[in-house]
DNA sequence: ACGAATAATTTTAAGCTTGAAGTTTTTCGA
DNA sequence: TCGAAAAACTTCAAGCTTAAAATTATTCGT
């Protein structure tokens, strides 16, 4: 079976509404001697994109929500005293401007509250409302089930090995980013 | 060192322009017994987000380009006879409507050409122009170097183990998606 | 006391993305 | 032959995302 056929077979196995074609094979023509890293990167990206796309689809269909909103609520779930926008931005790894709009929408829908800090009028403090917390708990339970299902065919041993190897990869990435800039 | 301190230490190691705070620890409160899968998912997501964000930043700063444009050009790079929009959409794992706009922009900038199929007037065929191909080769070479650098602290053995474990994870994901829908 | 520097968020313009509806074309079955 | 169904792409509304500029507030040094 040639590569194109193998690729199409994998596509057929996927039940997602929109058919997708696996892009990992384009790495073959990578310049120089970087085939191994590129292949690793594409596979990492393919895995995370598949999961993310499916999670987004289910959040929309089952809860009429979005992944960024879910993520923001997850940040607030453990912060019973609320959180400032700057910290939310850092934890979600997105720009402050994006947080402003996300917060606006969640405030409008009643999921979170926002107040100005009593000690610094530049600072906004946001927190889940009781309604928001209840909604989040339902989404979080469903989300955990989806992830368990998607990852469920992986053996416990393979899962542990993968977790450990991803930790090493993460240290490589963070280390590389660190050397390019100066520590915070 | 408590968890918050450990988290801050990792943040300090990162040299990205915007400070980020590692979100992996929020998994601790996962409902039920799904902590392991959620932890794995968050780490996978953190790794791919870190790399993607850095690649986007460098493409913008060094080539005044974007990741979707680079990705589209990568699809076309091996298709010397061009490619139809529907296949591009599948390979890039994005909706057809998005491809329409991306193609429009790359055509305007002279990187790709678009023609109507001689045999089916619904179908558009796009291909890299000579200019586009030259630009892509420069970006691809740089991109490969960036990925090699980001992944470079991972040993060859660890890289091979990770690639293999990600293949297993991918099969779990694809298998799970498959059972939820019907094959294409 | 006061002006400059810094900080936190908001606003802006530009780009990407989705799903659904719309348009045009081709295919298919009666 | 012809109308319905399907296909390929485009358009649309809504949401997300970035970096940079703008606004408001606080801090700091003289």
Task: Furnish the topology, listing elements before pairings.
2 copies of one chain form a homodimer.
Chain A: H1 3-13, H2 35-63, H3 67-77, E1 83-84, H4 85-92, H5 96-108, E2 112-116, E3 124-128, H6 130-151, H7 156-180
Antiparallel strand pairs in A: 1-3, 2-3
Helix pairs in contact in A: 2-6, 3-6, 4-5
Chain B binds a DNA duplex (30 and 30 nucleotides) through residues 56-57, 60, 66-69, 84-86, 94-102, 105, 120-124.
Q: Please, could you describe this protein's structure?
A:
2 copies of one chain form a homodimer. The N terminus and C terminus of chain A are likely disordered. Chain A is globular, with a radius of gyration of 20 Å. Chain A has a domain of 84 residues: Winged helix-like DNA-binding domain superfamily/Winged helix DNA-binding domain (Arc Repressor Mutant, subunit A). Chain A has a 3-stranded antiparallel β-sheet. With 184 residues, the first copy, chain A, is mainly α. The first copy, chain A, starts with a helix and ends with a helix. At the A-B interface, helix 1, helix 2, helix 3, helix 4 and helix 6 of A face helix 1, helix 2, helix 3, helix 4 and helix 6 of B. Chain B binds a DNA duplex (30 and 30 nucleotides) through helix 2, helix 3 and helix 5.
CATH class of the domain at 66-149 in chain A: Mainly Alpha
**Strand proportion of chain A:** 5-15%
What's the average pLDDT of chain A?
A: 84
CATH fold description of the domain at 66-149 in chain A:
Arc Repressor Mutant, subunit A
Largest sheet entry of chain A: 3 strands, antiparallel
Class derived from helix and strand content of chain A = mainly alpha
Low-confidence stretches of chain A: 1-18, 180-184
- What overall geometry of chain A do the principal axes of the alpha carbons give? globular
**How does CATH name the architecture of the domain at 66-149 in chain A?**
Orthogonal Bundle
The quaternary state of the protein chains shown equals: homodimer
End-to-end separation of chain A: 51 Å
Which chains have the largest interface? A-B, 87 and 87 residues
Assign the CATH superfamily of the domain at 66-149 in chain A.
Answer: Winged helix-like DNA-binding domain superfamily/Winged helix DNA-binding domain
Rg calculated over all Cα atoms of chain A: 20 Å
* Count of helix runs of chain A: 7
Please tally the β strands of chain A and state the result.
3
